[in-house]
Backbone:
């Protein structure tokens, strides 16, 4: 397999871009909602066939083994072309975790099947009473011979209804302090006792689910890493999520839709509108500048500090402000569902508004991110 | 009416809401073509609410905007989907403000009785709050008129029995009453965030007799402008109901939801945010109250319009902000369709956009009210 | 003496307005800074001579004995004509407190001299470590025969340098809980051991002072009300302060200055400026509406609830936003001190900016007001 | 320069600040006519800082904007009042960008050495960022020119030894060097919030020889625009220094000030506000860093201007907001003149207004950079 790190950045970018442009289905570009497996499966398998589904995995495990520098280019091109997010928990989370913490048997079983799109993972972290406060989760796993027996409930599990597996945090020691006594396991969704109930969201789609676990028997070999060390395993990847979710892509796209709408309404001749637009344009430009700084850190292969939390706050809150100006600019259409034709320009006005709402809730709410910055960056007392 | 009577009316609306409607009914009606429930509508008629603003001579209660606002706010707290403001304040107001006594005698009592549901079709372009900015034409034709044009953003159109349509004639803009199934009248529905619809009415050589002229060129504009101002104020009252309930829900949730071992309402960051929402709610209530008092004294058109724009601007912004923040305060559950917070946000979105959003009304206010220098 | 409550509202308003217009010095209208006693003394004595210096006191004590309704009219006319605040602590605070809690001897000594402008009171509440948290004050008064001996320090004492007396909160029981064990006393500023140090503020004026108290001997008869009940006495008037400080007057004046400046620069043809201006114009209009609601409560003679805190927050924060738009609108002049001539219109751009800063700090900071609303109005847990 | 060299430079500025200046000196200089200290100025010259941007051939260090920014930010953290940006980046930049080699050889080495302090007098009207929007006239006269007009908002004018003045000739706009005491040159000072002054220069038949023409019509405009963009960026760096120190002070205060038995920094409401200020500071630093990198690659005039406006807009807003909030966080003591927080606010006010405030630069940016649609 090609070692892409040996070729120049520009050549790599061209290669990737060309492949994406030629192979990604045009009608799936820049979608606001999460695509279903039925819709995105073809693309997943195309990437998989090309050996490009796991840019972040080492080559010996079937990944592209990209350097941080090359990985950034890869994701820049993904974003540039508006390629939708496939069910990528297996690639982004489970793979790297197994490679670092998993047994050989686990690696042999799971890694190839994730690459092949046979195993689709969902994340079993959140619970009804452990949202922002993940450490207080209650779903329990009790050892019974060669199995763990899991009882409890997970919630906000994205696309659980079409996942084959779940990576799950469970409490294995009730006496231990909150963050301790938690273990990390892999769970086949077809195991008896697993019930999935999709939850409709404000945008009208069923993207997340409740998952009820009733005497679910998981083979003991599905424990990843040591017993009661699940918190450490789960935390290892959270800072990646924070730079990823701080990407300017979605707000940038909303800004362009706003610009199109404004042009069709002749609003660039209205200094009142232009003042508001320019403010957001600069908020976006400065987001891109600060994002680029963090990308440089990743490219250099350095660890991200807790200060990266600011990226998610600023990106997602800018996205929200943009989506609110989009509603305002649409005037009476600011409450009409679906694509609206503004003199030939079709804009779905409500979609960015809806989808930017949970952006400040999931993946560590804005409140949690501000708490992190206050505590670990400003060192304020608690 | 005295403030004691207002309290009684408020209680009777709350009682109706508690017994006669609930959010389950609201959910069920979402996206349905009728989007309202004839039985509930008739019940409201029996309680007199459809005729609050209709003069007693036409079978109404002949009360004022203050009373209309109490009913609208109370029903909006429960997200009642029936098009009370659109049918009674807006369409009913235009009818009552017209100059066709026969038509008033025919339609207003039936509106008050819940037998006829009218919708007003005046607007053609997004952003235009000027009632004369229309291009629908009414050409004289065999003792009546032939209408051509397209009307948009018609609230309450889905279940309406007829439309009041504005159109230009050689004499100026006039208003007509068109029954629902008039040939040449084509209604399309645009789905709204809250599960209701805006009507889009296409008129292709639709004919109407002179007897169905609601208002001639001398009165049409005044009747329209007054009814629109009144409807903007009552939409503000609805927004007050929506934001009031959304804030109550959020504050209650803050008291019970525990994270990190404490109710989230004990965290000062969230407390101060809730306080800022409360301030917006109180400002909305204050400007609404002042406007209602002023409007029931029949001020001149400029003063009336300025009050309407103040109410619509403040209540739209506050309503959207409070319901948006309600989602954030509730966290993930707030983003689900099955939890009620989202329904409040969506109703606020519709009420904020309908009849001109906050920005449109601030701009109108700036045109109406010159700055003070001394 | 006239019973003004017997005449009609309109006649009363005309009487007051005419007197103000004919007698108040024109050059002292609408001043941003607090005037010094030297400047305002003449007006104080004019009012005093007319019998109008204490509209809030009962007629038997030399006040006007106005009904709440008439009092509102009186203050509306004060504000309308831009009449500066004289050193009014004696009138607003000390008088009503003595009338309610004072001994007959205290009433006889102090009330007539306050009316005559012989006794000028300053307020000795705040201390270096008791700002927002007034209950934790440390200045101590120890009984010694017929005297209390006071030791400690007060700060942010407005115009202490020209006051003849201070009404002071002192700790008289160190064992008691925070709010308890505090007493209310009257102190002659000429007493040995009192040292006043004026503090220059950001606007360059010396309006507040530090007051050092070293073995200051106060006669025991200067204790007002019961020993250790000072907190109750001091709290009795705080809600009046909150409606007074929430008056739209100062932001309204700033709005007019902004309008003048904007007109001279032709900005009412710029929709970008007009959008910002209108937003503030409506913030002001809605402030006036909600202020009027509270005024109605006062007129009816009812007590104000804790919700009145919102008035101060909204009034003062609107004033700040206005002052910031004034700076922005002045462009390069937005950092130039003193009156600036904009094509014949003279505007002191920085003054509202400076003076609106402490408006969210003194008299209960915006943070404290929000805490009050969260606790007592929204009933949120602590 | 490498990032190691940048660290060394940053340390040397910090060291100078620690030993060579303090806030007491800043206070003492407020409102004085000189508003800077010749001894300190010469010390800066010895350290090479006055010549950072001056090419080596003219006795400077020939470094880039990145280095100028490090010096400016470091000095601004200590509120150093000496007009470094005005004299070296703005006036020095215009001189260096001019076409008069003799004058460059005469003035630039003396500027770098701290012997001549020039001030740039270009602007005439508030709000005008267009360098050609002037009405000062230079009429040819006996082999030189006779100047009439009025210039405003001249930073560093109080202690300047001469002025670079823009004026219209029949050939177009040109720049002249006028020594301080030239007859017909009258300087008035307008007091600024931070104790420094803007100069107002009135030119009444002031004569200047052709030898003192800094730049002719072909180069004047370009030299001015470039120097102004660079100065806007370096003013942004100063604002970063000011806001950085003001935020540090505020956070430190939050850790130590106790109210209600706890440090006020433990209250979540205040914590989240401090975090929002921190985010603004980091955004300012990011756009400044990107602009410095880009500008040292000599982009075209439009790209340069766009970067300058981005920096000036963000840093002005963030600087004002952080220093305003610093007052609020400190409470009553923050409003006293004797506490330093107010000095930071006042310096931010001056830096934000000078060379165009945030709003002016956002509008300029909108003219420079069209929105993206795809």
Residues:
């Amino acid at each position: 397999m090609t070692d892409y790190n040996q070729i120049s950045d520009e050549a790599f970018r061209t290669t990737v871009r060309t492949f994406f442009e030629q192979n990604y289905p045009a009608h799936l570009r820049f979608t606001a909602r999460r695509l279903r497996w039925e819709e995105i499966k073809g693309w997943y398998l195309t990437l998989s066939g090309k050996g490009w589904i796991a840019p972040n995995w080492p080559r010996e495990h079937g990944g592209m083994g990209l350097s941080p520098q090359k990985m950034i280019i890869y994701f820049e091109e993904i974003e540039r072309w508006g390629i939708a997010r496939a069910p990528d928990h297996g690639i982004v989370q489970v793979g790297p975790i197994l490679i670092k913490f998993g047994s050989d048997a686990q690696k042999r079983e799971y890694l190839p099947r994730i690459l092949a799109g046979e195993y689709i993972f969902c994340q079993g972290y959140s619970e009804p009473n452990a949202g922002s406060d993940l450490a207080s989760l209650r779903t329990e796993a009790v050892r019974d011979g060669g199995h763990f027996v899991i009882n409890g409930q997970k919630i906000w599990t994205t696309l659980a209804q079409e996942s084959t597996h779940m990576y799950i945090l469970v409490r294995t020691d009730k006496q231990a302090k909150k963050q301790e006594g938690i273990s990390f396991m892999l769970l086949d969704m077809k195991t008896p006792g697993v019930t999935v109930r999709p939850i409709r969201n404000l945008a009208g789609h069923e993207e997340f689910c409740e998952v009820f676990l009733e005497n679910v028997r998981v083979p003991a070999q599905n424990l990843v890493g040591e017993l009661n060390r699940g918190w450490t395993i789960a935390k290892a990847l959270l800072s990646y999520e924070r730079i990823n979710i701080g990407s300017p892509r979605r707000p940038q796209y909303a800004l362009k839709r706003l610009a199109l709408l404004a042009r069709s309404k002749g609003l660039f001749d209205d200094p009142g509108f232009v003042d508001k637009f320019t403010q957001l344009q600069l908020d976006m430009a400065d987001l891109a500048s600060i994002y680029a700084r963090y990308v440089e850190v990743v490219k250099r292969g350095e660890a991200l500090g807790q200060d990266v939390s600011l990226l998610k706050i600023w990106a997602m809150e800018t996205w929200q402000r943009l989506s609110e100006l989009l509603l305002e600019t649409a005037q009476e259409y600011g409450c009409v569902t679906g694509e609206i034709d503004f003199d030939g320009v079709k804009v779905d006005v409500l979609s960015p508004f809806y989808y930017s709402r949970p952006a400040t809730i999931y993946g560590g709410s804005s409140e949690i991110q501000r708490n992190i910055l206050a505590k670990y960056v400003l060192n304020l007392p608690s | 009416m005295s403030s004691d009577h207002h309290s009684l009316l408020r209680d009777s609306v709350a009682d109706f809401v508690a017994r006669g409607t609930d959010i389950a009914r609201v959910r069920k009606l979402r996206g349905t073509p009728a989007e309202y429930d004839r039985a509930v509508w008739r019940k409201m008629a029996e309680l007199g609410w459809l005729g609050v603003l209709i003069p007693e001579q036409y079978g109404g209660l002949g009360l004022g905007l203050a009373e209309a606002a109490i009913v609208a706010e109370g029903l909006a707290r429960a997200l009642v989907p029936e098009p009370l403001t659109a049918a009674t304040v807006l369409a009913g107001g235009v009818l009552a403000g017209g100059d066709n006594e026969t038509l008033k005698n025919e339609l207003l009592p039936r509106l008050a009785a819940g037998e006829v549901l009218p919708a007003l079709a005046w607007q053609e372009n997004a952003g235009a709050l000027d009632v004369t900015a229309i291009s629908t034409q009414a050409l004289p034709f065999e003792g009546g008129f032939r209408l051509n044009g397209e009307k948009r953003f018609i609230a309450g159109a889905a279940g309406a029995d007829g439309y009041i349509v504005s159109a230009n004639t050689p004499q100026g803009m006039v208003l007509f009453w068109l029954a629902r199934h008039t040939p040449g009248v084509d209604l399309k529905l645009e789905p709204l965030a809250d599960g209701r619809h805006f009507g889009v009415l296409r008129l292709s050589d639709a004919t109407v007799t002179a007897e169905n002229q609601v208002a001639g060129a001398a009165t049409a504009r005044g009747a329209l402008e007054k009814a629109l101002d009144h409807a903007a104020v009552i939409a503000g009252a609805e927004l007050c109901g929506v934001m009031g309930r959304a804030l109550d829900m959020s504050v209650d949730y803050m008291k019970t939801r525990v994270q990190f071992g404490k109710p989230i309402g004990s965290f000062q960051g969230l407390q101060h945010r809730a306080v800022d929402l409360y301030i917006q709610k109180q400002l909305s209530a204050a400007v609404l109250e002042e406007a209602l008092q002023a409007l029931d004294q029949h001020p001149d058109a400029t003063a009336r319009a300025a009050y309407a724009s103040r109410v619509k601007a403040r209540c739209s912004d506050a309503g959207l902000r409070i319901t948006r923040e309600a989602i954030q305060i509730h966290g993930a559950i707030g983003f689900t369709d099955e939890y009620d917070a989202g329904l409040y946000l969506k109703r606020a979105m519709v009420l904020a956009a309908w009849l001109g959003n906050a920005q449109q009304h601030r701009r109108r206010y700036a045109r109406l009210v010159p700055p003070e220098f001394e």
Notes: Chain B has a mean pLDDT of 96. Chain B has eleven helices and ten strands. The interface with chain A takes residues 123, 126-127, 152-153, 190-194, 198, 258-261, 267, 269-270, 320, 324, 327-328, 331-332, 334-338, 342, 345-346, 349-350, 352-354, 356-360, 363 of chain B (CB under 8 Å). The longest strand of chain B covers residues 197-209.
